[in-house]
Design goal:
The strands form two sheets. An eight-stranded antiparallel barrel has the order 3-4-5-6-7-8-9-12. The chain has a three-stranded mixed beta sheet with strand order 1-11-10, with helices on one face. Strand 8 and strand 9 form a beta hairpin. 21% of the residues lie in helices and 42% in strands. The protein is globular. It starts with a helix and ends with a helix. It is built from six helices and twelve strands. The chain has 181 residues and is of the alpha+beta class. The longest helix is centred in the last third of the chain and has 9 residues. The chain has one domain.
């Protein structure tokens, strides 16, 4: 999980929420000018990451960064729409030491050079699964959201204010090449 924290700029502590598929209703068309660059959170213990748009029309990103041992890692991510929100989903098999064939996801809102990133609230998702509103299961401290039908996605979109929290703010930092131009 440490690599995930480095590459996604958020700390995903014990008690993560995963899903069997990317979260969202459809791929989001993304503008490279809005997404690409070097992003840094205020927490100095979390290194900056690089974001590259691989295919803007299909909402495909490549996220890369260097871990605490100086080793570079890359993850491919899918950007999808969920109501009026943008969701970034990362396949867990792309993350070392994880053997679960699913996804971790975050809500992302970009305004200029500032990105607000919200992670799922495991307890809130657990309540919906325990109440039969969403398919899913619990594995130790982790919650696995099952395959979602359109009405499940609508429910998540409607309740995003209570289902997502732990906001992190990342700022795009100028690259050396852009400051020399």
């Amino acid at each position: 999980m440490k690599t995930m924290a480095v590459l996604l700029t958020v700390s995903l502590a014990a008690g993560c929420t995963y899903s069997l598929e990317p979260l969202g209703t459809e791929p989001a068309a993304i503008d490279p000018a809005e997404w690409e660059g070097t992003w840094q959170v205020a927490d100095e213990d979390v290194p900056a990451i690089e974001v590259e748009v691989v295919d803007g029309a299909s909402g495909l990103l490549r996220i890369s960064g260097v871990d605490e041992d100086g080793e570079r890692h890359e993850l491919d991510a899918m950007v999808r729409r969920l109501g009026d929100w943008t969701v970034v989903s990362v396949p867990l098999l792309d993350i070392e030491d994880i053997e679960f064939d699913g996804y971790v996801w975050l809500l992302v809102e970009i305004d200029g050079n500032v990105a607000t990133v919200l992670s799922p609230e495991t307890g809130a998702f657990r309540e919906l699964i325990d109440g039969g509103w969403l398919p899913g299961d619990q594995d130790d401290d982790d919650l696995i959201v099952g395959f979602l039908e359109p009405h499940h996605l609508e429910l998540i979109a409607e309740r995003r204010g209570t289902l997502f929290g732990s906001a992190q703010v990342a700022r795009r930092i100028p690259s050396l090449t852009s400051t020399l131009e």
